[in-house]
Amino acid sequence: MNTPRIAFIGAGNMAASLIGGLRAQGVAAAAICASEPGAEQRHRVASEHGIQVVSENTEAVQGADVVVLAVKPQVMQAVCLNLASSLKPGQLIVSIAAGIGCASLERWLGNRAIVRCMPNTPALLREGVSGLYANEQVSAAQRQQAEQLLSAVGLALWLDNEQQIDAVTAVSGSGPAYFFLLIEAMAAAGEKLGLSPATALKLTQQTALGAARMALASDVDAGELRRRVTSPNGTTEAAIKTFQTGGFAELVELALNAAAARSAALAEELGQ
Ligand SMILES: NC(=O)c1ccc[n+]([C@@H]2O[C@H](COP(=O)([O-])OP(=O)(O)OC[C@H]3O[C@@H](n4cnc5c(N)ncnc54)[C@H](OP(=O)(O)O)[C@@H]3O)[C@@H](O)[C@H]2O)c1
Questions:
Q1: Cystine design at 168: which of 10, 87, 131, 236 (Cβ 3.0–4.6 Å)?
Q2: Is the pLDDT score of 1 beyond 90?
Q3: 16 Cα–ligand 1 center, Å
Q4: Contact, 32 vs 23, CB < 8 A?
Q5: Number of H helices, E strands in the chain
């Protein structure tokens, strides 16, 4: 398969991460271009990644095999309506915008091959995870192209149906903030137990990283890992029992349900 030519519409944070990831994987600068209205951002991305960054979206998509829609959801409709007549039938559209469904994209762009993705912020460090959904027009080769694109910034997982995007948003899209919340709370509690702020924070951050690495590397589930470090009547058990008495698992479920419901509601609002 020839290297696909990729055009990014919008060269903000997420697009720049994807471009950086692709370049680090050895994708040639000449195979990537982007469009961006802000002159300063245009120059920054062009000089950092050695790619062409133009001001007109319609210019960027000329000759592209893959068009990545990387603008904010609020401007997506206007961007799509402006772009529709410049797109060619064989081009794959990849949207990374939160809350914009395939039906809306098809209404604005016409009946096309579309992959809708939900990445998350650790993509900035190439430690992201994305859920991907392809509509029926997407070919096997185009699925590979989309997967290669999102794999440049982390793990890419295919979904069976588009509704699962709301669940992905609830778990991993919004997920980094839940871990930040836990880090904040643990560091604050550590301080109250007499640690310096810096020590409490470092202990918490490194523990989060170490636990995530152990969970990823282990062949047993997180519950079993937890039981293995929870001796009867020990310190960990004292803390875990306190979490459980406070309804920790139920609270997490409620929080994720709220995020998924908000994701579905946003899709309704933004996709009109
Ligand atoms: N960041 C994340 O963690 C994350 C996670 C999941 C999904 N996403 C999705 O990724 C998309 C981009 O997010 P981001 O964080 O990268 O936002 P961002 O940094 O604001 O990037 C969007 C870029 O698009 C540019 N833009 C605005 N209007 C445009 C137009 N008409 N044509 C072309 N470009 C235009 C913006 O320029 P100006 O600044 O000059 O307006 C900005 O540089 C969003 O739809 C978001 O939902 C992001």
A1: 131
A2: no
A3: 10
A4: yes
A5: 12, 8
> Measured between alpha carbons, how far is 47 from 34 in angstroms, rounded to an integer?
12
CA distance 33 to 46: 9
Whether the model clears a pTM of 0.85, i.e. scores above it, the answer is yes
C-alpha 151/C-alpha 84 separation (Å) is 27
Ligand 1: lining residues by beta carbon, under 6 Å = 9-15, 35-38, 41, 57, 70-73, 75, 79, 96-98, 118-121, 173
Among the listed residues 20, 149, 7, the one whose alpha carbon sits nearest the alpha carbon of residue 67: 7
Q: How many A from CA of 9 to the centre of ligand 1?
A: 9
pLDDT tens digits along 19-66: 999 999 899 999 999 999 999 999 999 999 999 999 999 999 999 999
Residue nearest to atom 21 of ligand 1 (CA): 12
Domains in the chain: ranges and CATH: 6-165 (3.40.50.720), 175-267 (1.10.3730.10)
Rounded to the nearest angstrom, the distance between the alpha carbon of 233 and the centre of ligand 1 is: 51
The torsion angle over the Cα atoms of residues 73, 76, 77 and 78, rounded to 10 degrees, is: 130
Rounded CA gap, 152 and 135, in Å?
Answer: 22
Ligand 1 atom with the shortest distance to the CA of 41:
43
- Ligand 1 centroid to Cα of residue 70, in Å, is 5
For residue 219, what are the CA distances in angstroms to 207, 209, 231, 236? 20, 18, 21, 22
pLDDT digits (tens, 9 = 90+) for 5-14: 999 999 999 9
- CB of 32 closer than 8 Å to CB of 22: yes
> Strands, DSSP E only, in the chain?
6-9, 32-35, 52-54, 66-69, 92-95, 114-118, 128-134, 154-158
Report the alpha-carbon distance of residue 108 to residue 77 in Å, rounded.
7
